[in-house]
Amino acid sequence: xxxxxxxxxxxxxxxxxxxxxxxxxxxxxxxxxxxxxxxxxxxxxxxxxxxxxxxxxxxxxxxxxxxxxxxxxxxxxxxxxxxxxxxxxxxxxxxxxxxxxxxxxxxxxxxxxxxxxxxxxxxxxxxxxxxxxxxxxxxxxxxxxxxxxxxxxxxxxxxxxxxxxxxxxxxxxxxxxxxxxxxxxxxxxxxxxxxxxxxxxxxxxxxxxxxxxxxxxxxxxxxxxxxxxxxxxxxxxxxxxxxxxxxxxxxxxxxxxxxxxxxxxxxxxxxxxxxxxxxxxxxxxxxxxxxxxxxxxxxxxxxxxxxxxxxxxxxxxxxxxxxxxxxxxxxxxxxxxxxxxxxxxxxxxxxxxxxxxxxxxxxxxxxxxxxxxxxxxxxxxxxxxxxxxxxxxxxxxxxxxxxxxxxxxxxxxxx
Length: 415
Known about the structure:
10% strand
């Protein structure tokens, strides 16, 4: 007997969520625009400091700081000199040498004062020009990177299932325009692929359901014959169960294919009402197995598709009832709004689930301990459909083993 092939691994969940809100302070993010601004401004600041240093050295050399004065007084009759900036030459009884030294010191002091004044004013001018350079660099970086912003906005719109959006970037034929044109070509191919997929799902839905419905009708007609032999009736019941299982498999596959896409048409849906309807549909099965369904369903309105959201609750509650303990089992279903998100939690008693097998439960045709489609509890698509529908609504599902057995399923959806 050939070995059963391993189920295909699901693609990794994307780490970037296009529906993630903008941070409260977007200017604090180390964006390319901020980095280019710092680069432009830093280069200007370094160039200004170098230029200022060169000008200062040249100015100091030009005025010959510390050199001998250009003149000396060697003799005079009734020479009187006064200066408010050089109080040392006002003193009486100065010799010519003392007078010349005072003049030299005063000239040197004036030169140093002029250089300090030049340096301080130059630094203030450099600071003002640096601020202007940073602002100008920020504006120019924004202008240069504006095509990238347009590409990002289009990508977010496409992530919301609007595949008809295109960038259609105008301007010079540079690298950014080449990137935008390549992105538009990729979107065109994606739109054709998704359109073909939707058309295939519609055609497959009709082509697969019709023969199964005919087989079910024929089997029911033969089983309704009271004169049919017992062996034939037993065979008919077996074939009818197999046909019903095939119908469930087809419905699950088609629903899984449809729910992999984002939901375009959204309407207000109360998770409490959805959970109540799911409980009503599973109540008879739970009562037959002696399982108590409890929990409080508080209003939690989300925007989405009511049919698909009902499928989430129904699949989770059905699994909680079917994978339970034989006696004294219970299922708890709660809905509420937490931290701005609608939360559906389904907990149940049941067999012990190892933590390392949690991820396998969400794979198609996988159950606990690698049980596959040979079970009468379902076709192995329930949790796969739940995860797919939750992602299509911008939410996610997580599972956690309970102490003593059973699981706690938590579905979080944006309100």
